[in-house]
Amino acid sequence: MKVIKEEKYIEIVTTRIGKLNLMPDRTLALLYETLSNYYTKVEISIIEKEEELKELVRKKPDLVISGIKYLGFDLDSIQRNSTNKIWFSDYLDKHGISYTGSSKKPIEYEFDKSKAKKIVSEYGCNTAPFFIAKPDQFIQDDLPLDFPLFIKPLYEGDSRGIDSNSLVYNFDDYQRKVSSILENQQTASLVEKYLNGKEYTVAIIQDFKNNSYHVYPIELLAKKNKNGDRILGFSDKIADKELPLKIENEDVKNIISKLALDSFKALGAKGYGRIDIKMNETGVPYFLEANLIPGLGTGYLYKCYNLNTGLTYEQMILDIIRNALENNTTNR
After folding, report:
1. How far apart are the first and last CA of the chain?
2. Between 25-36 and 313-330, two packed helices, what is the crossing angle to 10 degrees?
3. In degrees rounded to 5, what are phi and psi of residue 156?
4. Quick one: pLDDT at residue 223?
5. Residues near 64 by Cβ (< 8 Å), separated by ≥ 6?
6. N or C: which end of the chain has fewer CB within 10 A?
7. What does the radius of gyration of the chain's CA atoms come to, in whole angstroms?
């Protein structure tokens, strides 16, 4: 049956500047192919110059699908700590352009994992005790938390910088991992009290029309590494080695879903996103981190959606886009 296309102009936007691109080519192609079947005009913009950003505003799309947190057009402004960066959602807000996902403030919170943890903790959500560290900042007897500790980059996403050495049981290993993160990821470390229970990720899609949220939790089971630990590291995610599992226990599903939704709301997020959660040894869940511009390919977001609904990738994308367009209509 032929689909009657809706008279909307959708722009899919990302960049190739440094590490600022959050949307790989295969996802761009998949989004373009999917949305072209339902909307009259779908285009892709790769923003690499300030003039291209201004051109996007001049084209006035009905909706931007964002694959960018922030932009910078010189060596200073692309740095994480630069005050000259252009927060993409803020730029679109100032020019009256609608977009998928959250506004500037929630993205800023998500960008710095320590800020996100503080915000959700103040809201009343469980999150593991933590501190921020650089090499040689502490001596052995002055560490704020007891071992074992879990160490990851303060700013990186997608488990970059996380590997079998992230779980440490002594000060020498702690020092080595903190130094490695500064050298390889050019960031301080977020050091958390280690939680040794099950790990979950939860997709959330906001339904603006019905003023509600659809919450889709799944368990993630990593393979045991050389040390016998189950750690969802960057290389495992890239190789797609972890096992996504549907949560059969309704009580577990409910408490995971509640923590994820409370965390999403605490951050002021909107549209859609993904919340990572881990339990301790007694089964109490804790907020780990948020991803408010999660990949729109066939990765974790879709796995959450599909395992809970049985629906297709195409339907997930349409849910996200139609809800974003609905929000645009409601706020006019």
Report:
1. 33
2. 70
3. -70, 150
4. 81
5. 11, 12, 13, 56, 92, 97, 98, 99, 100
6. N
7. 20
> What's the token pair of residue 209?
């029309």
Beta-bridge partners for 63: 10
Helix and strand totals (H; E) in the chain: 10, 14
- C-alpha–C-alpha distance, residues 251 and 253, integer Å: 5
Cα 185 from Cα 152, distance rounded (Å): 10
Give SS3 for 256: helix
Residues of the chain with pLDDT under 70: 1, 157-159, 232-241, 328-332
What CA–CA distance (Å, rounded) separates 159 from 249?
27
Q: Could you give the angle at which helices 104-111 and 113-123 cross, rounded to 10 degrees?
A: 110
- Give pLDDT, residue 76: 75
Nearest to 191 by CA among 168, 220, 172: 168
Residue 32, both tokens: 């373009």
Q: Reduced to 3 states, what is the DSSP secondary structure of residue 199? A: strand
Please state the three-class secondary structure of 229-253 as a single string. Answer: CECCCHHHHHCCCCEEEECCCHHHH
Q: What is the model's pTM?
A: 0.93
Report the percentage of the chain scoring pLDDT > 90.
78
Q: So what's the pLDDT on residue 332? A: 38
DSSP per-residue string spanning 26-71 = HHHHHHHHHHHTTEEEEEEEEE-SHHHHHHHHHH--SEEEE--SEE
CA angle (141, 146, 152) in 5-degree steps: 105
**pLDDT at res. 330:** 43
Residue written as tokens 């998949």? 30
Question: Residue 23 corresponds to which tokens in the numbers above?
Answer: 């949307």
